[in-house]
From TrEMBL, chain A:
Protein name: UTP4 small subunit processome component
Biological classification of the source: Eukaryota, Metazoa, Chordata, Craniata, Vertebrata
Family matches, as SUPFAM superfamilies: Quinoprotein alcohol dehydrogenase-like, WD40 repeat-like
Pfam families in UniProt: WD40
Domain of life according to the entry: Eukaryota
Listed SMART domains: WD40
Entry's Gene Ontology cellular component terms: 90S preribosome; small-subunit processome; t-UTP complex
Single annotated GO MF: RNA binding
GO biological process terms on file: maturation of SSU-rRNA from tricistronic rRNA transcript (SSU-rRNA, 5.8S rRNA, LSU-rRNA)
Xref: InterPro entries: Quinoprotein_ADH-like_sf, UTP4, WD40/YVTN_repeat-like_dom_sf, WD40_repeat_dom_sf, WD40_rpt
UniProtKB/TrEMBL annotation, chain B:
GO biological process assignments: maturation of SSU-rRNA
Name of this chain's protein: Nucleolar protein 11
Principal cellular location given in the protein's record: nucleus
Gene: NOL11
GO CC annotations on file: nucleolus
Gene source species: Phasianus colchicus (Common pheasant)
Keyword match Nucleus: yes
Record GO terms (molecular function): RNA binding
Domain Nucleolar protein 11 N-terminal, chain residue ranges per copy: 1-335
SUPFAM superfamilies membership: WD40 repeat-like
Length: 671, 723
């Protein structure tokens, strides 16, 4: 196949924000996760843990607690003192209600999701009723001194356990009266997390590294386990209440299980069973699903550790998963101008790639941003002269002028008022148009005018034809400017004709989330990758799957390909060879050659190093379609600049950990 | 493991219930069907039982006034029953006959002792006078005269076997406390008489016998609570002279202090006997019990208490014991499986059998045991100076067992045959095809050879021994005396091979080898044949040899004093330099010492012995180790070239060990001083060198780290090749 010149970029200084809290919705198998920068993400466990939705953060909006309530409604509460309901279709905060109790430290929903309890800075616990269209204040429970750091409902919904500094209180929800206080200590002890079991046991974890089991009626300590010398920050109970997981500030998680003292006996005790050390920093959030322990830490890692005794068969769910990077593309590339645009949460960086023949250093020209809002999406046009980005409430377009090595960025005035936010931005290959993905499945088409203007051309809306309310989160346009493919949150892929600004067809529905898509410049075939690692090729002119795609579905993809960890986030094509497609995920880069036979499960999937050792005829026999390179890890972006030139953007884990605050000092032998 | 299973009652024996009428049982004989037994009581009744159904199938009685004197047996060929009443009247009947008065009757001229019925053969009738007739011969002329062969001896017990197609009858008689064994072979018309070796203060109570491979094994239960074994070869030239049969102890019936007074016993298989008797613990009332013993391991395997008492009779047919227990005839089913050592461990053990099992291979005991017991009996016979016995015994073995006995026979011949003959035999033995137990057999052969060597200083089949050790996977424990003899004979080549081959040489022997090797002069060694493979690649044999030799000749000293001689001549410095370059010992000695270095040892056990090494030898050995150490250090990989050459760690270990053992001596000894200081210098230089290496390693590690850092630069343009 030949050699590529690889521009290996490692200067993308992305530091993912740490995980602050998590909430798991059992019915929908979805995990909501809030980061320290206020961003909220929803992972769909049914779709191979794909990050389905992402709501960027806001400088003023921190999230201290997340709750699923009333079915599939997601609520968050934070130090701003507001309870926020998130609109998961339009991916933005929908409504906020002030708690009137100062910063909110904790929030808990009762078992049937009809009530929310919040614990406030002023020591009050307030109850809210979840009503259609928002939440409604119900009552105040007795107020105490000291912030309420954690809350837990009794499964029956009659009592609440609240943990604060030095105290654990159990509150009667109906009367609002408070039951006797438990556990007063001389030294300040912060109760970080609490759980109320149906048996009446209250489990608390505190800053002394203890996990304690209390009898709430008598106020007596039943059992105490010291798991760590540092604080135990988080705690979660399984649905059966026979297992709990705790996370410590030393990065370790521990499982406790309620086990019979003697085999077959009646008497049961809580026993610390499994320790795990997946994190380097505080484990601020843990979740106990029926089959896995999930932990999220300040090191930005989300770790899904399956409980092997609960997993029925060896498959995708039986493997440890670690996610550090979002399942979104944060880099866009101007192929012709050889520019890279890096999207950070609150700023952008534009870099020019160097070349081998002259020693030009790449440089950056970050456009300055104002405002507290975080960026939803950004893009640079292929010619490199336009930069666009969007926040929750604003859409910005910049004209970039290159004068030798220097760059000047000028804001384009008179940007059309669009329905915001924009979820994805895509520039046409001739840089003449900008496609703005919006909610309700609509796409705005903006014409870019020289020397620095723009005009709203049209809004394509499928809402009228398919009725979707979900936002479009992925876009792909064809090189000839005729076609546009858009994926909305319900995973439907719509294809529009740009000539007539009308809906062309819909790709047959597939029961998994789309992770990336692209239209081939020569054949106008739409190439789609799904979160279950399947690959499809759909011919837009013929409105059907191509023969190659059918062949792939018939013979099936290689087992190792399907068992990969992370989704494909970008697809690119070789402009000179129509059969070659570039795909990448976090751990590999793959050039898919459609002209070669597919590998079956008996052949080696990653065979590049083997092939290098073979003679030419033997090599020819061993060739298969997937040419995988794992040299670049973790890979955030890869693109083909031209036929023989690749650009890769890596973010080494070492560099991230170097930018994190130092973890809890642990004495290691010999240091 | 043998075990007693469930018990059930076959019939009552009381005057009211069933058979016997209270007078007890005469005998129990197998019936025509494996499940049938024939019970004869001491009165006038015989009953046929089906055991599994616990019910009688038939019952026959003689008239009032008559009495059955000989147990009823079944003729397996014709399914007829034969009985003798009133000593002389023979009756033969069938199942359908009811009244014994009306069945066939023959009155004989002599009193019948017993009738023995054998499968596929005519029943044998043994008369009280010792005469034997087959039934058909007897019936042709019932009144024929029966000879009296035993004069006034009384038959105590008899048994019949079928060997090949010919019936063999053995019976034991007693007269005035002497017991005699008669073997009657009917076809051959031969009768052999043996005298049973007498035992003081005890006499045989009960006998049982089995035949295997032409040898009758007679087991006797003595009143001294022991079971003895007597082997009687069947092929015996009938000589007029009466021969004495020697017996060997098979089993001592004692269980941790208490003694089983046996009354009767049966053989279950080659390793198990069942004994019925009363167990008398000291100070306690004796209890009757049925026991199963393993003769191989001398252990009690199962026992069952019989509180109601027995008649002292025990029969065993088809994995079932029959005995009277109280007033009933009880049947006990037993299981008897091949015993393993592990199964028997933990139970009682007796040391009496050690003479039996000196080199028994547990896996192939069947034939081996016979061979061994033959041999042990042989030695007994030798002691009793019965040359005749020896010869006849040997011939018997030769004639009958051509396969199994070659080694046994050879073992015997090793004792006295000429060297040439033995070597010839050995050659034949080695050329034979491999047998599974050949390994054990070779062990026996070598042990026998070594015994001969010990007894006869002229006898030493060196070539054979060397060949054996080189070819077979032998070990020290298989032939423990071999190295001792080799040490005695100063056979250094054999010792060298042993040190190289044996994995389990005791430290004492290793030390002895070392001492011998160090003490033998190089002159002597030069003439001997030593395997030089381990030294040939690092010692320049020819010139060095010459030099050492000339020096020895010039000085007139022995090699050990060579260094002193040099010291005296005043070429100290130069020679010390040389001593590292030249090997302090000749190549032969070096090869032998290498073999010692190569052998496995444990420091704890070797150190006490090593302390006994004479100082001069210790210095010489240390000098050689030092030389090896320097040689090793010459190469970058610190290994000596060649096969079986010592490794640097072996050299260092021995060096430390030797210094530990002789530290004070070394300090005191003037000639060791220079060696020690030279060693110290060399070791110090080495330590310095390695500490330098340490530093380099540190810098290289740093370099590695820098290279890693370099890898993580922010931007690079690279070339990626995809195929």
């Amino acid at each position: 196949m030949g050699e590529f010149e690889v521009h290996r970029v490692r200067f993308f200084g992305l530091v993912p924000a740490g995980v602050r809290c998590m909430a798991y919705q059992h019915r929908g198998c979805r995990l909501a996760l809030a980061r320290t920068d206020g961003a909220v993400e929803v992972y769909n466990f049914a779709a191979n843990y794909f990050m389905e939705k992402a709501i960027p953060g806001h400088q003023a909006r921190s999230v201290e607690a997340l709750c699923w309530a009333a079915g599939e409604r997601l609520f968050g509460a934070g130090l701003s003192g507001d309870i926020t309901e998130y609109d998961l279709e339009r991916l933005r905060p929908a409504r906020t209600v002030d708690g009137f109790g100062g910063p909110i430290w904790s929030m808990a929903a009762n078992n049937d999701g009809t009530r929310l309890a919040i614990g406030c800075e002023d020591g009050s616990v307030k109850l809210f009723q979840v009503v259609p269209g928002g939440v409604q204040f119900e009552k105040n429970l007795d107020r105490q001194k000291g912030r309420v750091l954690c809350l837990s409902w009794h499964p029956s919904g009659t009592h609440l356990a609240a943990g604060s500094i030095n105290f654990i209180r159990v509150l009667d929800v109906r009367s609002g009266n408070e039951l006797p206080q438990r556990g007063s200590k001389k030294r300040e002890c912060v109760v970080w997390s609490i759980a109320f079991l149906s048996s009446g046991t209250v489990i608390s974890s505190d800053s002394f590294g203890r996990v304690q089991f209390w009898d709430w009626e008598r106020g007596t300590l039943q059992d105490s386990h010291t798991v760590s010398t540092s604080a135990v920050l988080s705690l979660a109970v399984s649905e059966e209440e026979d297992s709990i997981v705790v996370g410590t500030s030393a990065g370790a998680t521990y499982q406790f299980q309620l086990l019979p003292v003697k085999a077959g006996g009646q008497e049961k005790r809580w026993v610390r069973t499994k320790p795990f050390q997946h994190h380097t920093h505080d484990v601020r959030a843990v979740v106990h699903t029926p089959t896995a322990l999930i932990s999220g830490g300040l090191d930005a890692q989300l770790v899904i550790r399956p409980l092997m005794e609960k997993v029925q068969k060896k498959g995708y769910d039986a493997v440890l998963r670690k996610f550090t990077f979002p399942h979104r593309r944060l880099v866009s590339c101007a192929r012709k101008a050889r520019l890279l645009l890096f999207q950070f949460s609150q700023h952008l960086e534009l870099w020019r790639l160097g070349s081998t023949n002259k020693t030009g250093t790449p440089h950056s020209a970050p456009p300055h941003l104002q405002g507290p809002e975080h960026i939803y999406c950004s893009c640079v046009s292929p010619c490199g002269s336009w930069i666009a980005y969007s926040t929750a409430s604003r859409f910005h377009l910049y004209r970039v002028q290159h004068e030798g090595d220097s760059i000047s960025v000028k804001k384009v005035p008179g940007v059309p008022k669009l329905l915001l936010p924009a979820y994805q931005l895509q520039c046409a290959s001739d840089s003449g148009r900008l496609f703005v993905a919006s909610d309700r499945g609509s796409v705005h088409v903006v014409q870019l005018l020289e020397p620095g203007g723009c005009k709203h051309l049209h809004t394509i809306c499928v809402w009228c034809c398919s009725g979707t309310r979900e936002a479009v989160y992925l876009l792909a346009s064809s090189a000839d400017g005729n076609w546009l493919a858009a994926v909305s949150g319900d995973w439907e892929v719509h294809i529009y004709s740009l000539k007539h600004f009308k809906h062309h067809c819909t790709v047959p529905t597939y029961s998994c989330a789309v992770t990336a898509l692209a239209i081939h410049p020569a054949t106008n075939n739409l190439f789609i990758s799904y979160s279950d690692q399947q690959l499809f090729e759909f011919s837009i002119p013929e409105k059907q799957y191509t023969a190659w795609s059918r062949m792939v579905q018939n013979s099936g993809l290689h087992k190792l390909w399907l068992e990969r960890d992370s989704p494909i986030t970008h697809i690119a094509f070789n402009p000179k060879n129509t059969s070659q497609i570039l795909l990448h995920d976090v751990y590999m880069l793959c050039v898919l050659d459609k002209s070669l036979p597919l590998p079956d499960n008996n052949t080696l999937l990653v065979n590049q190093s083997t092939l290098k050792q073979l003679s030419e005829p033997a090599r020819r026999r061993q060739l298969h379609a997937f040419k995988i390179c794992k040299k670049f890890q973790p890979l955030l972006f890869a693109d083909l600049l031209d036929e023989r030139c690749l650009v890769t953007v890596e973010r080494p884990a070492v560099d991230i950990s170097a930018e994190l605050p130092p973890p809890v000092q642990q004495k290691k032998f010999g240091t | 493991m043998a075990a007693l299973c469930e018990a059930f009652t076959l019939c009552g024996l009381g005057p009211t219930g069933g058979v016997g009428l209270g007078s007890g049982l005469l005998a129990l004989e197998p019936g025509a069907d494996p499940d049938h037994v024939l019970l004869t009581d001491r009165g006038r009744t015989a009953t046929l039982f089906k055991v599994s159904d616990q019910k009688p199938l038939g019952c026959w009685s003689v008239k009032h006034g008559q009495i059955i004197t000989c147990p009823v047996v079944c003729n397996f060929e014709t399914h007829e029953y034969i009985a003798v009443h009133d000593n002389k009247v023979l009756r033969i009947w069938k199942d359908k006959d009811v009244n014994l008065d009306k069945v066939f009757k023959a009155t004989l001229s002599a009193e019948v002792y017993r009738i023995h019925s054998l499968p596929h053969a005519e029943p044998l009738v043994l008369f009280r006078g010792g005469g034997v007739r087959t039934l058909d011969v007897l019936l042709e002329a019932p009144q024929q005269e029966i000879e009296n062969v035993i004069s006034d001896e009384v038959i105590k017990w008899s048994e019949a076997f079928l060997e090949g197609q010919q019936p063999v009858l053995i019976f034991v008689t007693e007269k005035d406390g002497d017991f005699f064994v008669y073997i009657q072979k009917l076809k051959m018309r031969s009768l052999c008489k043996y005298k049973l070796e007498q035992q003081e203060l005890s006499n045989p109570l009960c006998f049982t016998a089995y035949i295997k491979k032409q040898i009758i094994t007679l087991l006797c239960l003595y009143s001294s609570n022991s079971v003895y074994k007597v082997l009687i070869p069947l092929q015996q030239n009938s000589e007029e002279e009466e021969q004495t049969l020697s017996k060997s102890l098979l089993l001592n019936l004692s269980i941790s202090g208490s003694v089983l007074k046996g009354t009767s016993f049966v053989v279950l298989d080659k390793d198990h006997v069942a004994v019925l008797g009363s167990l008398a613990a000291s100070g306690e009332e004796s209890k009757e019990c049925l026991t199963i013993w393993n003769t191989k391991f001398q252990t009690l395997q199962a026992s069952k208490e019989l509180p109601l008492g027995t008649s002292g009779q025990l029969w065993c047919y088809g994995e079932k014991f029959f005995f009277t227990h109280g007033k009933v005839l009880t049947v006990v089913i037993y299981k008897c499986e091949t015993s393993s050592l592990a199964a028997a461990v933990g139970k009682l053990k007796d040391s009496q059998t050690s003479d039996l099992s000196s080199f028994v291979n547990w896996n192939t005991l069947g034939d081996e045991e016979l061979l061994v017991s033959c041999q042990s009996q042989q030695s007994v016979a030798l002691k009793s100076e019965s040359k005749m016995m020896l010869r006849s015994k040997k011939s018997a073995v030769e004639d009958i067992q051509p396969d199994a006995s070659t080694i046994g026979q050879f073992l015997l011949s090793i004792k006295d045959a000429s060297t040439a003959a033995v070597e010839d035999e050995l050659r034949q033995l080695l050329s034979k095809a491999q047998r599974p137990d050949f390994q054990a057999a070779i062990g026996c052969v070598i042990s026998a050879l070594i015994n001969r060597c010990k007894a006869d200083p002229m006898f030493y089949p060196r070539n054979f021994l060397v060949q054996m050790i080189q070819k077979r996977e032998l070990s020290y424990s298989l032939c423990p005396d071999l190295m001792a003899v080799a040490l005695e004979k100063k056979d250094v080549h054999l010792l060298q091979i042993c040190l190289q081959r044996f994995p389990d040489i005791p430290e004492e022997i290793t030390y002895a080898c070392l001492k011998v090797f160090l003490s033998i002069s190089d002159d002597y060694l030069e003439r001997t044949d030593v395997d030089l493979e381990s030294v040939i690649s690092y010692i320049d044999i020819e010139p060095n040899n010459k030099e050492v030799k000339t020096e020895v000749v010039e000085n007139g000293f022995s090699t050990e004093l060579e260094e002193d001689g040099c010291d005296v001549t005043g070429m100290k410095e130069t020679h010390m330099m040389d001593s590292v370059e030249f090997c302090p010992v000749g190549p032969q000695k070096a090869a032998l010492l290498n073999a010692v270095l190569h052998s496995a040892y444990s420091e704890t056990f070797l150190l006490p012995h090593l302390k006994d090494l004479p100082a001069q030898q210790a210095v010489l050995f240390l000098r050689y180790l030092h030389y090896l150490y320097v040689k090793c250090s010459e190469k970058i990989n610190t290994t000596l070239p060649g096969v079986l050459s010592p490794t640097i760690s072996q050299i260092m270990d021995w060096m430390c060990l030797l210094l530990d053992a002789h530290f004070t001596v070394m300090v005191m000894l003037p000639e060791a001083k220079r060696l020690l200081s030279s060693m110290h210098k060399f070791v110090r230089a080495q330590v310095r060198f390695y500490s330098e290496l340490n530093k380099i390693e540190g810098s290289l590690q740093e370099l590695q780290r820098i290279k890693c850092q370099k890898d993580s630069q922010a931007y690079s343009i690279e070339v990626l090749e995809l195929i």
